[in-house]
Amino acid sequence: MGAKINLFENAQRNASNHYERAKELREKMLGLEKAISETKSKLKKGESAPAAKKKGVRVARKKEWYESFHWSFTNSGKLVLVGKDAKQNDLLVSRHMEEKDLFFHADIKGGAATILKGGVDASEEEKKYAAALAASYSKAWVRGFAGVDTYCVNKGQLSKHAQGGFVGAGGFAIAGQKEWFKNTPLGLRIGLDKEGRGCAGAPDADWMGKSLFIVPGGKEKGAALKEISYLLGVDETEVAQILPSGKIKVLRERG
Fold it and tell me: pLDDT by residue (tens digit) across 232-244?
């Protein structure tokens, strides 16, 4: 569009007006070019747009070595480790079990190797705590049992060799007497520790903050995961790895 001339102004005044207008347009153009340049630079650096920043980005926290297993602490602070599969069962015993530790297992095919660190010096209450985890992370949960017998032995009683050959992955031959915990109830306390981590414990765990109590039930694991993460106010990823296999019923909240 051509420049307009004000017929009521003289030639000098019109020229001055056109100069100021042109200067104004140049400044706007320079500002626009600068904004475009900054936007391109941000895109190259992978910076988020303002709308995306409002949503927030969840930063993965640094995990402790024991978090690759199912883990818990007794109320007096002893670490309990539970294998998630046959490979982890073998790893727990071969790499992480020491002479003063105790090995727990549910008396059912498909149990999880459970290690109570410092278990040789543990109280009866602490042993029952570890037994509850061994029971709840076994196939007894998948089958919907209310309870299952569990036992514990020393490291020296475990072997990968039995009469007739080598014991398969995740299994162990056991020599000598076992200490039994008859009809150990299945149930877990699921909650958050002081660092905000999703964690699991025996039903009497009192070291957590906000928590829930779960038992074998009728809700599929995926649906239970959504319910539990909502009630605890955490991302599902904080809870997904600590739940037992099988259907779940959430009984109550605490904290």
Answer: 999 999 999 999 9
- Residues 208-228 pLDDT 10s: 989 999 999 989 999 999 999
Band of residue 52 on the pLDDT scale cut at 50, 70, 90: very low
Residue 113 corresponds to which amino acid?
Answer: A
Classified as helix, coil or strand, 22 is: helix
What dihedral angle (degrees, nearest 10) is formed by the CA atoms of 12, 18, 19, 21?
A: 150
C-alpha angle 99-102-103 in degrees, rounded to nearest 5? 115
**CA 105/CA 135 separation, integer angstroms:** 7
Alpha helices (runs of H) in the chain, residue ranges in sequence order: 11-45, 50-55, 86-91, 124-136, 139-142, 221-232, 237-240
Neighbouring C-beta atoms of residue 177, cutoff 10 Å = 9
Strands 161-162, 165-166: pairing is antiparallel
Q: What are the distances in angstroms from CA 165 to CA 8, 89, 173, 239?
A: 112, 19, 10, 39
